[in-house]
Structure formats: structure tokens, C-alpha cells
Amino acid sequence: MARVDAVIVGGGISGLWLLNLLAGRGYSTILLESARLGEQQTLASQGMIHGGMKYALAGRLTRASETISSMPGRWADCLAGRGPVDLRGLQPLSERYYMFADASTLGQLTGFFASRVLRGRIRKLETEDYPQPFADPGFKGVVYELQDFVLDARRLLLKLLEPVRNHAYQWRLSAGDICVRPNGIRLTLGETEIDAEHLILTAGTGNQALLDAMDIKEPVTQLRPLHQVLVRHSYPHPLYAHCLTGIRGREPRLTITSHPDGDGWIWYLGGQLATDGVGMSDSELIDHARAELDACLPWLNWDGATFSTLRVDRAEPAQSSGQRPDEAYASACGRCIVGWPTKLSLAPDMGDKVLALLPPPAEHPPVMLGIPLAELGQVPWSH
């Protein structure tokens, strides 16, 4: 019989972040992943570590924009080896993120972006400082630089996995594996039994089935779907930017990140495009994406590009409004803790919330299980 402080279920960004965080604090911890690490949501993310400016496009700061405002700095500390999780050696895909637009369409946002309240969070660039895609004479708009940056999600998970490799296992936990006891939770993994002081659920869309198995009524999972677009093309430069030209709502018209694809780049498109795309077929969304690229970046030629789409469900704690939660979430239900970061950027925030729910470590000896170690998944565009 093995005994541990915590068993983490789910091996995306939140599970692997917590595994590192708890191991660094002296907790005896193992992680169980049902498939391959990161394949449910994390590896389908755009990799943005952002500070909430894209939540303030109504021309004012919001609870959502301010909750996340400190995250780029916290992640930067981890990249420099000063944070609670050591990410030294992980190089960002881009150290800056941008907003761009046809300046005539920004309206009140022009004054808002120049206001004192945003000082240090956004900066209007001079022409000579534009990233390469905007250096083209065909671009006639304005470019702002944000404090945000972009990570390669797979390299991030690989970095998190390195120090805890022997503590992350492949096992699909089912209702019959779980026995809730007065002093903890017993898991039966084949011929192996584990007594855990706490069970921590970070399985994204998989949390709900496990909550149901333990007859835990709250929290409840909500899913918010996206339909995103992948563009393979011959343009030689990456782009990391939000397009605000003619925005109709409170999110960017396009959110663009670029990811290595053989000898070139694949552009990954989100923003309002991905929200609108939920109700579209693949072919309808591809036609819409072509039109949006022509409208937002008309100086570039997309004739030889190939397009594909990707549907992703974002899993979160249910909100009465059905809208996006403003912050990371963690709550205790007896010896079970359930959490969702709600955004890649908010993984450190969720880590804080989980730590606050745990007692000090009980100093159980390290555990090695006789089940397969979990393997890292692949990004969806590599398939």
C-alpha cells in the first residue's frame, strides 16, 4: 500500500504545473493522465501568456483584465528561475505580442490606449519598430506592443515534465477505482492501491465524470466551444498579434499566433473568428477566414495557402451567465480538490488557490508505481 499527500488527475498545463509546484514544496505527489499529456486542451492552445488587454476592448478595464494583469510578470519570473516553478531554458516563441488596426477604425480605443492607467502595459510603436509583417509599405495602420509573450505549448509541457518524469503515469481513472474514506481517498490502479490525503482534479472536460463518480454536486463543468483555423502558407515571417480593425464586440477580430511547421510557419487563428466559427461548417469557416485575412492583412497574398479547422472545447466551472470566468478556480469538496485554470496564463493563479486548500505535507516517502509512465502528446497541427 502506497501513501501520498496528493494524487493529481489530468496532465495538461494545470496538472503538470501543480505536480512541479507541490514537489517543490515537499509534497509526495503523483499524476494520472488518461491519454497523452496535454492533448485535451493545452496543446491546442495558442500559447499566449497575456495580461488581459484583450479583455478591455470596450475601452475600460474590467475585473477579467485586472485579474490576469500580473501573469506575464509571474511567468517571466519562472522563465528567469525566480518563480515557484523553474522554467529556465524555455525560450518564448515571441517575447512580445501586438495589437494592430486601421487607425481610423479604433475610435475611443485610441485615447484609452494612450491613457495613464495603461502606462507600462501597452505602447504605440514608431514605424521603424514595427515587426516584419507590418514593415510592408502596404500596411497603413497603427501597431501597439503589449507586455504579453507566447510560449510553444509542447515545449512548455516538456519542460514541466522533465523534473517530475517518474511521477506522471498513464491511467484512465474510473468510478470503480475510487473509494472515498473518512481520512482520505483510496485509489485502486490494477494491482496497485494508493491512499491519498487529497485527490486533485485538473482533468478539464474529464472533471465532471469524476465529480459524478464521487457524488459531488458542486462545482459543475461548463464547456465553451471554439472553432479555430490553421493556415499553412509560404509567407516567411511569424506573426503574434490581435487585429482590431473594425472590431464588432469585446474581443479581437482575429488573434494570430505562429508555430513552427517544417521549414516554415503555420498561422493559428482565433479571436472573434473562432467564436463565430462555432456555428459554421469547416468549409464555411475556411471561406470566412480567407475573407477576414484579406480584410485584416490586405497587403499579404493568401492565394497559395491551405486552410484547415480545429474544434476545441474550453472546460471551466459553470457560470450563471454561461460566460468566461474572470479568474482561475479551485475549491475543496472534502478530500477532493477540483480546479480549472480557465486560461493558460492563469496556471500560477490556480496553483496558488490549490496550495491554499492543502495542509502542510505529511512527509510520505517517494512512490514508484508499476504502471506505465505518461507520454507527452502532439500538437493538433502535427497530425
Please specify the SSE layout and strand pairing.
Blueprint: E1 2-9, H1 13-24, E2 29-33, E3 48-49, H2 63-67, H3 71-79, E4 97-101, H4 109-113, E5 122-124, E6 142-146, E7 149-150, H5 153-161, E8 168-170, E9 178-181, E10 184-189, E11 192-201, H6 207-213, E12 221-232, E13 241-243, E14 254-261, E15 264-270, H7 272-276, H8 282-296, E16 306-317, E17 329-333, E18 336-340, H9 347-357
Parallel strand pairs: 1-2, 1-11, 2-8, 4-13, 11-18
Antiparallel strand pairs: 3-7, 4-6, 5-6, 9-10, 10-11, 12-15, 12-16, 13-14, 14-15, 17-18
Helix pairs in contact: 1-5, 1-9
Percent helix range = 10-25%
What is the correct CATH architecture of the largest domain? 2-Layer Sandwich
Strand content: 25-35%
Name of the CATH class of the largest domain: Alpha Beta
- Shape assignment: elongated
- CATH topology grouping of the largest domain: D-Amino Acid Oxidase, Chain A, domain 2
| Spatial extent as radius of gyration | 22 Å
The total beta strand count reads 18
Compute the average pLDDT: 94
Termini distance? 40 Å
- Main sheet overview: 8 strands, mixed
Segments where pLDDT lies below 50 for 5+ residues? none
Work out the oligomeric state of the chains in this entry.
single chain
Structural class: alpha/beta
Output the number of helix runs.
Answer: 9
Spell out the helices and strands N to C.
EHEEHHEHEEEHEEEEHEEEEHHEEEH
